[in-house]
């Protein structure tokens, strides 16, 4: 069943076509990875999907409804959560307040909110850091907090932009296990450069190059695809 | 994080209790000054809501204070309504003006927001001068003593009596302080702080930040209007000075000195600056020079202010 579909999405930046006629569809419950060389248009595409960037042309449908004209905050309320490529937690606030902020819209009462935040912190392995200021956490922990912010929104679609960048191998293993758990409740769309992570997590892979979709398929198919190899390695 | 709530609540109540007690020991002159300080500190509380907790620096709050001042003053003077209705009218004037200005000014941010609010405020100031037939402009007007007496059933308030004035000013300040304390600790307060810290991220958590900023400005306008209305009714003077740029800069100064983004900072800042200016005016008429100098020094050397520094060094539970 289709959760999200885009039709003919275009986004120009001056003369550059960052996204150039993209038809992209996502099924409910899958883990999808978008890969591609730098400048392929991956971040712009997910930016348009979550409403941070306006498309020059094209439509977006989410759960059978057109969301092209919806502002970003409304899309978040509809269930599209975006975690930032550059870690963008609230550095001056505690982990508790970071997560309380994300979770409070769906939770009533202070007790229930405390419980929910504790659950989220436990889930990403930051239970001991509730009262630490987010800005002083080690980088890997800030990334985990960023993911927890996404989870706190109880999204139907969780978009992760290069989530494992800067993480250690042990942290990456922990992260992959977490995403697999998340996928039981939400559809996951991730942009990722670490191919080991992509191959381990993704059920399907979309390859972008020059603002277009170059190929799409199961990990084995993509690995064997000659065009993909060319885009990555040159002719 | 919430562990400090009980302690913080006690501290706030203790401060209010001390302020209540002070009226029995203060000599006449300081008794009068304190009533004034409490009204001005309420204004600072309203300003702090916007600057300290939402991160919006307005240079036009004088228009909101003046909206309350004139809203109450003109109504009592010309429409012959009673003091309590005048007070409510003053609050509504501040609130309404904040909403109208906010709808325009909040489309900008940073320096542009300062300039737009400054321009609106100057326009308001010039308006009070232009209609001097009604407002008496710079010279201003005083309210008739009859308008400053008010009865609720058997309760009789005489606003010309210093004791009544002090306690009404304290009541106003207490209400503003506790309202700001409650707001800061509420889910809405958390959103405001998030906007101050990182607005784009707050949008991506599903918050319509414009609406929250407008609410913060409206609350700030209502409190500023209440302070302005109280000033007119308690001290019986309504004049254009209160709409001038000086009264936009002063709350900024009070809040910076006391500690931006702390609930009790506005009181401390207002108190110290009031007495500083009071002392200096005894020696020179150029007290505005001192105000400017204090502002520059604060921004350069002491950006967290008194309570902000205390919070960072010793008491992280301070709201």
In words, what does this structure look like?
Chain A is of the alpha/beta class. Chain A has a domain at 1-77 and 193-235: 3-Layer(aba) Sandwich (Rossmann fold). Chain A has helices at residues 42-50, 72-78, 95-103, 110-123, 139-152, 169-182, 195-201, 219-224, 226-233, and strands spanning 2-13, 16-27, 31-35, 57-62, 65-66, 80-83, 157-161, 187-191, 204-209, 212-217. In chain A, helix 3 packs across helix 4 and helix 4 packs across helix 5. The longest helix of chain A is centred in the middle third of the chain and has 14 residues, at 110-123. The radius of gyration of chain A is 18 Å and the shape is globular. Chain B is an all-alpha fold and 319 residues long. Chain B has 14 helices and two strands. Chain B has helices at 5-22, 28-54, 62-78, 83-105, 110-130, 132-135, 162-184, 187-197, 199-203, 209-235, 246-258, 265-281, 287-301, 305-313; strands at residues 149-152, 155-158. In chain B, a hairpin with a 2-residue loop joins strand 1 (149-152) and strand 2. In chain B, helix 7 (162-184) packs antiparallel against helix 10 (209-235). Chain B is globular and about 55 Å long. The A-B interface holds A 50, 52, 71-74, 76-77, 81-82, 84, 88-94, 96-97, 100-102, 104-105, 110, 114, 131, 149, 153 and B 1-2, 187, 190-191, 193-194, 197-198, 200-209.
Largest sheet, strands/sense/barrel of chain A: 6 strands, mixed
Distance between the termini of chain A: 37 Å
Walk across the major sheet of chain B and give the strand order: 1-2
For the record, the CATH class of the domain at 1-77 and 193-235 in chain A is Alpha Beta
- Rg value of chain B: 19 Å
pLDDT averaged over residues of chain A: 88
What would CATH call the architecture of the domain at 1-77 and 193-235 in chain A? 3-Layer(aba) Sandwich
User: Biggest β-sheet of chain B: count, sense, barrel?
Assistant: 2 strands, antiparallel
DSSP summary: helix tally of chain B = 14
Task: State the end-to-end distance of chain B.
Answer: 10 Å
Q: Give the integer mean of the pLDDT values of chain B.
A: 89
């Amino acid at each position: 069943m289709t959760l999200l579909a885009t039709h003919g999405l275009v986004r120009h930046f001056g003369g550059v076509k960052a996204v150039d006629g993209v038809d992209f569809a996502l099924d409910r419950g899958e883990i999808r990875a978008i890969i591609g060389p730098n400048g392929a248009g991956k971040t712009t595409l997910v930016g348009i999907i979550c409403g941070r960037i306006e498309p020059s042309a094209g439509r977006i449908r989410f759960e059978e409804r057109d969301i092209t004209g919806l502002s970003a905050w409304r899309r978040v309320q509809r269930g599209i959560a975006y975690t930032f490529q550059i870690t963008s937690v609230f550095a001056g606030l505690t982990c508790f307040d970071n997560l309380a902020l994300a979770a409070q819209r769906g939770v009533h009462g202070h007790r229930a909110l405390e419980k929910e935040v504790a659950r989220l912190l436990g889930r990403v392995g930051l239970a001991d850091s509730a009262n630490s200021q987010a800005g002083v956490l080690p980088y890997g922990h800030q990334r985990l907090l960023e993911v927890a912010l996404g989870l706190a929104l109880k999204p139907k679609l969780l978009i992760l932009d290069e989530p494992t960048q800067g993480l250690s191998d042990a942290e990456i293993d922990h992260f992959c296990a977490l995403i697999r758990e998340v996928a039981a409740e939400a559809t996951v769309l991730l942009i990722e450069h670490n191919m080991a992570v992509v191959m381990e997590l993704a059920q399907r892979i979309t390859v972008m190059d020059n603002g277009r979709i170059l190929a799409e398929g199961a990990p084995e198919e993509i690995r064997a695809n000659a065009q993909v190899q060319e885009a990555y390695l040159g002719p | 994080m919430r562990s400090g709530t009980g302690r913080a609540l006690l501290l706030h109540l203790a401060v209010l209790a001390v302020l209540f007690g002070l009226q029995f020991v203060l000599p006449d002159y300081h008794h009068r000054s304190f009533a004034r300080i409490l009204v001005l500190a309420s204004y600072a509380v309203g300003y702090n809501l916007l600057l300290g907790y939402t991160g919006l620096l307005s240079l036009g709050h004088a228009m909101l204070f003046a909206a309350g001042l004139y809203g109450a003053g003109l109504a009592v003077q010309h429409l012959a309504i009673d003091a309590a209705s005048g007070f409510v009218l003053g609050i509504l004037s501040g609130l309404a003006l904040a909403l109208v200005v906010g709808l325009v000014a909040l489309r900008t941010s940073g320096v542009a927001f300062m300039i737009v609010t400054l321009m609106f405020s100057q326009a308001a100031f010039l308006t009070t001068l232009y209609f001097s037939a009604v407002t008496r402009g710079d010279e201003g007007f005083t309210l008739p003593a009859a308008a400053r007496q008010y009865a609720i059933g058997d309760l009789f308030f005489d606003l010309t009596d210093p004791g009544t004035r002090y306690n009404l000013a304290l009541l106003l300040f207490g209400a503003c302080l506790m309202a700001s304390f409650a707001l800061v600790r509420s889910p809405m307060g958390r959103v405001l702080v998030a906007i101050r810290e990182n607005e784009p991220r707050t949008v991506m958590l599903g918050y319509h930040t414009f609406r929250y900023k407008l609410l913060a400005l409206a609350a700030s306008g209502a409190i500023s209007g209440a302070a302005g209305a109280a000033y007119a009714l308690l001290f019986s003077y309504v004049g254009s000075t209160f709409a001038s740029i000086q009264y936009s800069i002063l709350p900024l100064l009070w809040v910076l000195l006391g500690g931006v983004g702390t609930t009790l900072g506005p009181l401390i800042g207002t108190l110290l600056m009031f007495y500083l200016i009071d002392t200096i005016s005894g020696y020179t008429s150029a007290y505005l020079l001192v105000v400017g100098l204090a502002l520059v020094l604060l921004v350069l050397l002491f950006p967290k202010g008194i309570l902000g520094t205390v919070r960072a060094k010793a008491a992280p539970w301070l709201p």
